[in-house]
Design goal:
Aldehyde Oxidoreductase, domain 3, alpha+beta, 29% strand, Molybdenum Cofactor Biosythetic Enzyme, Chain A, elongated, four-stranded antiparallel sheet, 330 residues
Length: 330
């Protein structure tokens, strides 16, 4: 691509590099100058303008952005591709879910040519319907077609959206005298709805292994969530033991995410069971969001995956938590 100032008489058919004011208004940068616009510039007193001209083998910014965006999601049914504008194309989610990225492929595409860029949300980011997943931006008015082709090939299929594989959730809340009761249940229900699932039931049971085990076995939902009145502070505490008593298994107790340390994950047969810490009563981002989203969308989420959540796992402080991270001396 050629870029720079040219005499006005030579500017027709070129791309205007900077917006310019004329009698009829403002000529926007990126416009392909025609005879009428050249005349308007001349009447406004211009004798030269800064333009860009595509050379043989170059692609216009909009065509380049659309080509790269198309390759990036590679016809994924749950991802929408916007119309190109000023060298940009956005990819958005058609449904709630979890964004899954081939991070290495995206790095490779961004390394091909500095004018060819794509930015995404983090890997395994939970997203709502309509949320932006990625944006492709061609920085210059045109780029070499060979470079764009190489970037598109590197990025092909690097973005996908995992959506909920389960439809219903049971929430079991345990109760103790003077405990929190159903406080915060609305936050749990909002998390479920945010993934496109429905609450099959919300039941309250005494904080007792036998009572809780019966409730786990009787749960109607395809996923079981347990919100305990008293913190689960050991792998053999009431809620994990109740799951074992029900005939289930505990796969992981504890996670390197704060808030969320005291979460546990298990299953009753093929039915996932997630034990929620009391801090999940708050609507702020929580380790439970990460686990529930992956489980709901059928993504791998076992002991190894939870252990790998520590980097980035220091989440926003909850103002109401009873023991803030910082002690009295900071």
């Amino acid at each position: 691509m050629k870029f720079g100032p040219v005499p006005l008489a030579e500017a027709e058919g070129a791309i205007l590099a900077h917006s310019e004011q004329v009698a009829t208004g403002r000529l926007r940068k990126g416009a392909v100058l025609d005879a009428g616009e050249i005349a308007a510039l001349e009447q406004a007193g211009y004798d030269s303008v800064t333009v860009a001209r595509l050379e043989a083998g170059d692609l216009h910014e909009d065509a380049a952005a659309e080509t790269l965006a198309r390759a990036l999601h590679d016809r994924a049914a749950d991802i929408a591709r916007g119309q190109p504008f000023t060298g940009r194309v956005n990819l958005t989610a058609k449904a709630p879910g979890v964004v899954c990225l081939d991070v290495g492929a995206i790095h490779a595409a961004n390394a091909v040519h500095p004018m060819v860029t794509l930015a995404t949300v983090p890997d395994h980011h939970q997203i709502h319907a309509g949320g932006m997943i990625a944006t492709v931006k061609i920085i210059a008015y045109g780029v070499p077609g060979a470079a764009l082709a190489a970037a598109a090939e590197a990025a092909r299929g690097a973005v996908r959206l995992a959506t909920a594989r389960y439809g219903t959730v049971s929430l079991i809340v345990t109760d103790v005298p003077g405990g929190p009761g159903i406080k915060g249940v609305d936050s749990i229900e909002a998390r479920v709805a945010g993934l496109g699932m429905e609450m099959a039931e919300t039941v309250t049971r005494p904080h007792d292994e036998d009572e809780l085990a019966q409730a786990i076995r009787a749960a109607k939902g395809e996923i079981v969530l347990i919100l305990t009145a008293s913190a689960t502070s050991d792998p053999h505490d009431t809620a994990p033991q109740a799951l074992r008593l029900a005939g289930g298994r505990v796969e992981r107790f504890g996670m390197p995410v704060d808030p969320g340390n005291l979460l546990f994950l298990g299953a009753l047969g093929d039915k996932p069971v997630i034990g929620l810490p009391g801090s999940a009563r708050s609507p702020v981002l929580h380790g439970a969001d990460w686990v529930l989203a992956r489980v709901a969308c059928g993504l791998p989420c076992g002991a190894a995956e939870i252990a790998a959540m520590g980097v980035g796992g220091l989440l926003k402080e909850i103002p109401t938590r009873p023991q803030p991270r910082r002690g009295p001396r900071g």
